[in-house]
Amino acid sequence: MSGKERGRKSPPDHLSPEDKLLWAHAMRDAKPARRRRPPPASPAPPVEKPPPEGAKPAKARRPTRAQPLPPKVKDKTPAPPLAAGAVVNIDRRTADRLKRGQMAVEATLDLHGHTQAEAHRELNGFLARAHAAGRRCVLIVTGKGASKSGGGVLRAEVPKWLNESPNRGRIVAFAGARPQHGGGGALYVLLRRRRGEWTGVNRT
User: Fold this and answer.
1) pTM higher than 0.70 for the full model?
2) Using an 8 Å Cβ cutoff, are 92 and 124 in contact?
3) Domains of the chain, CATH where assigned
């Protein structure tokens, strides 16, 4: 028996001879159906293992940034203390004009009637504002101390306060005022230009 004949199905036994011939004629070209293979199963996803008990969750690493270099500190010679009429870092002609009262007074602060604390505070604020406004020569009136208002104390303290920081950094020189501006009870104060005037060199 050939392979084709083996694949054909035999007619049922209850058929008559004529029906068996018709069956054989109808089934002569029939081919057995091929079994389809099932598609391959997709691989199972990996199973994540839980972290052990007590373990801390891993933190995401942040990108490190380059640390900026510290700013360079400029080596500046501290300004020397000033005395009334001293020539430190200005030319002789400017110093003479200051002491003779020939420079225009652009602002005046009168400390009459102030306590020491009030006068100190007023002086600091006045010099800061005058320097920021670009004033060059200002007048500080302390009083001569003849009254009981504390003028004598202020007359002694104001030169000290002028040499304190930040006032010293704003001042080039100061000198006693002429009689028309208060005489011994007042001071001319020459302010530094805002761009800086200190060179560290005495000019005589």
Assistant:
1) no
2) no
3) 92-191 (3.30.1370.110)
CA distance 31 to 6: 10
- Vertex 152 angle, CA 151 and 153, to 5°: 90
**Nearest Cα residue to 130 out of 193, 37, 204:** 193
Going from the C-alpha of 7 to that of each of 10, 25, 29, 36, 168, the distances in angstroms are 9, 15, 11, 17, 119
pLDDT digits (tens, 9 = 90+) for 64-78: 666 666 665 554 566
Residue 82 CA to its chain's centroid (Å)? 36
Distance, in Å, from the CA atom of 178 to the CA atom of 83, rounded to the nearest integer, reads 17
Cα angle 153, 146, 174 (rounded to 5 degrees) comes to 50
Nearest to 169 by CA among 195, 198, 141: 198
CB-based contact 142:185 (threshold 8 Å): yes
- Using DSSP, state whether 173 is helix, strand or coil: strand
For residue 169, give the DSSP letter.
G
